[in-house]
Write the structure tokens for this entry.
Amino acid sequence: MQNKGRKVLKATILAIIVAFLIVMVICIISVKLGKEKFQMATKLIDMITIQTSNDVQKKAPVLQTFEEEQATILRYGPDYGENYATLKIPSIGVELPIYYGKTMDLLKNGVGHDNSSYFPGEGGSIVMMGHNYNRLLGKLPDVKVGDSVQVVTNYGEFNYTIYKSQVVEETETNKVPIQAAQEILMIYTCWPINNIGYTTQRYVVYAK
């Protein structure tokens, strides 16, 4: 009986020791894994911090170049029919609203801006037109080379100098070219200037 009791006691103690050893091993493994994870997390945080710092340095604001400033107004887009600017030609007393578009209704009230051409400041051809009425562009043929033209928009004022004028046929579109290489303002009206009704010729003024 006593021998049986001793065996049971020894087995219990052995089981307790084994269980204790297993718990110790699990704790050691857990601590080790936790430390490794902590180190990994620390390294990851450092990597993220360094990368973020580099990104901030790369994205630091810089002064815009002239070309970049031009790009900020690239394809400025008023609604069709919107009065977005004013045309001023002081030498002939012209100060007229500029409408985006070239329908007859718009041209009754001011100057039309051909919507297939560029906007002031974009660096390409700007084509505008108006009727040859005295209250509109009836005095356009009186301008001279060297006269100034201002286009005042809601994003800036643009100044041009007239360097040429000529009469063209309405079919001579190559004489009113749409191009992106140079900013040229072209303004035209019907010719002969005193003609009433439809004409096939245009008086064109060119300014840079």
Q: What stands out?
A: The longest strand covers residues 156-169. Residues 2-58 form the longest helix (57 residues). The domain at 68-207 is CATH 2.40.260.10 (Sortase; Chain: A;). Helices lie at 2-58, 66-72, 104-107.
